[in-house]
Amino acid sequence: MDTYFLPISALQHYAYCPRQFALIHVEQAWEENYFTADGRRLHERVDDGEPEQRKGIRYERSVLLRSEKHLIAGKMDLLEVHLEEPRKYFPVEYKRGKPKIEDWDRIQLCAQALCIEEMQGTTVTEGAIWYWETRQRETVPIDANLRTHTLDIIQTAYKIRQAGHTPPPTENKRRCRACSLKNLCQPDIYRQDRSASYIEELFADEKIA
User: 22 exposed, middle or buried (CB, 10 Å; 0-12, 13-18, 19+)?
Assistant: First the structure.
């Protein structure tokens, strides 16, 4: 059996809502809304750019990433390679919205850094996220706390996929309103259905840690 590599973008799905992650990556469900369509158009625009070099920095777009150690793979928007020795690799992720308090976007960036480190035999100390709504670039330190958080999510997301287990909806109802899978997920119905709680209790011993 071929080894499964978890898409790096899936980590952001999990961080936002584990149920959203499972619906997409376990049940293979997907619906597009304005936000996902707008984000897709933004990435298409970024990915279409040609590689270029300016002032000692090479800008590479649509870079394919892969980690055999962590079993993750994906494509990053932009990699800045600072050509002075030792070379510095600086990942940049583009997002349609604005900076967030939560680590959802930073986790995705950190996973990209983990792949770069393995592929290039280097250490990535920081990257950046460009937010289209605010036209701002947020520098993100790839520090120990973010690495630990990212690795925990990789491991837990893998366990959910292997178990074929779809968790309940997030308790944060505000996230549901912007989710493209709201109609498929039906979080309000799930929360009102007492049988769901019964099933959760029935299989409590089998829950994923």
Answer: buried
- What is d(CA 208, CA 197) in angstroms, rounded to the nearest whole number? 16
> Which residue is listed with tokens 């983990």?
114
Element at 72 (helix H, strand E): strand 72-82
Which residue's structure tokens are 């079993």? 71
Q: Tell me the domain boundaries of the chain.
A: 6-206
The tokens describing 118, both together, are: 């393995």
User: What secondary structure letter does DSSP report for 119?
Assistant: H
Q: Is the pTM of this model over 0.85?
A: no
Q: What dihedral do alpha carbons 93, 158, 67, 80 form, nearest 10°? A: 10
Q: Into which CATH architecture does domain 6-206 fall?
A: Alpha-Beta Complex (3.90)
Please give the average per-residue pLDDT across 85-97, as a whole number: 91
Q: How far apart are CA 28 and CA 2, in angstroms?
A: 19
Burial track 103-121 (b if 16+ CB lie within 10 A, e otherwise): bbbbbbbbbbbbbbbbeee
**Residue 55 neighbours by CB under 8 Å, 6+ apart:** none
